[in-house]
Amino acid sequence: MVGSPWQTSDTIASDLELIYDLKPQMARIGPFLPHHDTPFRSMPPGDLRLTLYLLSIIRIMSPQVLLPATTALGTLQKGGRELGILHGANVVMPNLSPVSVRQKYMLYDNKLSSGTEAAEGLLQLQNNFAAIGYEISFTRGDSPMK
Questions:
Q1: Parent domain of 80
Q2: Cα dihedral 32, 38, 119, 137 in deg (nearest 10)
Q3: Which of 15, 19, 46, 107 is deepest in the core (most CB within 10 A)?
Q4: pLDDT of residue 53
């Protein structure tokens, strides 16, 4: 989580080295967002620009990795997931949980849980990505890495 409490440039560099060394099929990064029921409730959220920069670095380091444009990006800033795609992300994961249970999975405050984040907003999600020149694929999305 970019901007996690007490994160430093050194810890970010170590995380990037770990990703490079592990060569995972998927690497998920997104901004830290505080939750009101945690000890970190008064901490500031992670930085959007730094998160986008790190997405770009990971894309260069690992061209075939599955790299999500996270819900946290979209929560931090309207259009954040689209910015993530433009900075190297190549995966978006809509919330397929039934509306009746979404409140049970709130990792941070004000989490996107309706509209384009949700399955019922798929057409809007497609339109948002078309506006930046991308088309959503409905294939399985298996990693090209073996």
A1: 9-33+46-130
A2: 30
A3: 46
A4: 98
